[in-house]
Amino acid sequence: MRSWLAQYEMRSVSSLDEALGLLAAEPGAWTPFAGGTDLMVLLEAGRLPQRRFLDLWRVDELRGIAAGPDEVVIGALATYTDLLRDPVITAQFPLVADAAKVTGATAIQNRGTVGGNIANASPAADLPPALLVYDASIELVSKAGLRTVPYHAFHTAYKQMDLAPGELIRGVTLPRAGFRSAALEGCRWKQTYRKVGTRRAQAISKLCFAATAVVDDRIREIRIALGSVAPTVVRARHAENALRGRALDAHVISEARAALGRDIAPIDDVRSTAEYRLKVAGNLLQEFLS
Ligand SMILES: Cc1cc2nc3c(=O)[nH]c(=O)nc-3n(C[C@H](O)[C@H](O)[C@H](O)COP(=O)(O)OP(=O)(O)OC[C@H]3O[C@@H](n4cnc5c(N)ncnc54)[C@H](O)[C@@H]3O)c2cc1C
Q1: Model's pTM, two decimal places?
Q2: CA–CA separation, 240 vs 243, rounded Å?
């Protein structure tokens, strides 16, 4: 281990009020610590600049997955294992479960949390594209109260997000209505989640792709989101607009592929190349549409 542990302080709290009180008393002094699966990697590498950590693990108000009639609220401390064991998530938000299944392996799934994945703000994280296509919103809490931010607006630039000092992610809300509406009665609902990496588990994605669509003789509604192809996870609005309301044929698919190129800005890095990512993103879209 390249860090000297005596330089670090960890304070454990057992209620949300206690956590928010500490964050408000010394703004910016405390860094939330949930499962620690991202933070411990930095500690081990000697690259953890913060020194004081607020251990949230025993804050029960941040746990659990609550299904109401209109929405499901996933607590920030919900782990991937919690997602995979939840009957409403697996039945109604299968792409969230699919993403959880390919995140890390069992140890990470037992310890890594939804809130930690979002606040770590990696553009290569696996869960966010699934949350984006389900139109998630993020609940933020501080001593000043609660506020809600649509997830598509939460990540503002590489590793930047709409999270003030003193705020915690309390949870993620997924609307249960999805695309259901009278106008879409009788349509088929198609969904897919794909992670492309060197291995199926324990590999950071070269690219991840989530899409959901409502179709009859044409595409009535569609949402597409990708990770690892831009400084943040992205909704592919140009591609969606190129497809919405249209009957699928080779020409429309080719237009959608071209539009997708305007939604993403992949780069070369240690895991892949911009060229590969652009090509595979187009292939995954085409596969879904086909
Ligand atoms: C071996 C290994 C494999 C992995 N595989 C994957 C993978 O396949 N896909 C993937 O996406 N990720 C993967 N990860 C990354 C990591 O496991 C996830 O991002 C995980 O969800 C992080 O959650 P955590 O609770 O452990 O976060 P922590 O490490 O506790 O925190 C991460 C960041 O979030 C902040 N934070 C945590 N909770 C809150 C909150 N409630 N409010 C505000 N800020 C908060 C912390 O301050 C910190 O900045 C892997 C990690 C390891 C070590």
Answers
A1: 0.96
A2: 5
- Residue 25 tokens read as 């008393």
How much distance in Å is there from the Cα of 75 to the middle of ligand 1?
14
**Burial 109-146, CB ≥16 within 10 A → b, else e:** bebbbbbbbbbbbbbbbbbbbbbbbbbbbbbbbbeeee
Q: pLDDT per residue over 81-96, tens digit each? A: 999 999 999 999 999 9
Task: Identify the residues whose C-beta falls under 6 Å from ligand 1.
Answer: 31-39, 41, 56, 76, 103-104, 108, 112-113, 115-117, 119-120, 125-127, 168-169, 202
Mutate to test the pocket of ligand 1, among 11, 38, 163 (most ligand atoms within 8 A of CB): 38
The first and second tokens of residue 192, run together, are 């897919």
Retrieve residue 211's tokens.
């899409």
